[in-house]
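TICKET #2291
ISSUE: user wants both folds in one file
ATTACHMENT 1:
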Amino acid sequence: ENLKEIIRITNSNADHVVKKLKEILKTYPVHPEATILLAETLSAQKNYSEAIEEYHKLIREKPEFTDKAIDGAKEIIRLFPDQFLAREFLVENYLEMDMFDLAIAEGKELLNIYPDSSDWIIGKYKDFAKKESALRECVGIAYLMKGDYFNANLEAEKLVQSDPKKVSGLILLGEVSLR
């Protein structure tokens, strides 16, 4: 907040603020407050992809700021719901933090907006599905979107096998059988 108070950001000076913050980060590359402010300023300028890259840098160097970075990504999605990199960022962090319910919800949303992200979803979720079987739902949906009914069915069966009362597995089985 101190840096934010010092640097008053307006539409007319945002480019100058971005330039100054980048200069600060050249000297102090792991300055969390400057990185967050840079990401927020970039987001205000609708440079969402660049803002997400700053959040990636932040948590790579200072993982204790993951919650702040996640909040920033959520704000970007609030402003621009179709922002792929922000949704991807949330998925990756939710998976790493074992926040599987949020990862499932975000993964489904990503697949709804970007059906072409199915390969990415399969790659990200497959290993985590060994740890949390509920993630197989997203993997199965991704296979369905690719038209790979065999693997979609396998994921649905594994999901039902892990918990026969799991409604999402039964729904997925039904969707596969309808195709």
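ATTACHMENT 2:
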Amino acid sequence: DVGYRAPGEKTEAASRAVVAVSPLKDGRAKPASVLGRKAVLGGPENDLVVRGTVAEMVTAALKDALMRRGIAAKDVPAWDLTAGGIKADGSAILLGGEITTFWVESVSVPFKTSLKASVQVRIVAGDVTGGKIIRMVNISSKLEQDVLYSREKLEDAISEALSSAMYQLFKDDELKQRLQ
């Protein structure tokens, strides 16, 4: 099960802000449900796929990251990431963005598997009342490890890369201040 994993540290107190979350766009030039590939050295290769789409999974991780920090998140229709397209009644901030990289690669050789996971997402924050873009934050994470293969280790690797990228979003001082 791939998804957001909350950090072990104590998170901030609950916020009064309601954040509208627009579905993230998938800009990866890959099939929507493919998140990587699994290969056996000198053998077959298979696509790694998710239920639904990668964009739905990353959008759900963003909402989960907000909620675990005590910030209410509500769904809104797709946003074109322009100031003129900001529409989210009842919210102070609108978050959307584009997934530029989301990929995991698993290459197995006898007695070990090399896992590489990479996540890059551009998050755009819009001020709903002011009708303007207030922040663009590029978040990313890479993870490389050699393990004995298991489906759980593969899921853990991509979840860790995704969670690490989301964690960066909340370290952005300007955005953090607006979310409080």
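RESOLUTION: both attachments delivered.
EXTRA DETAIL ON ATTACHMENT 2: The chain has a mean pLDDT of 89.
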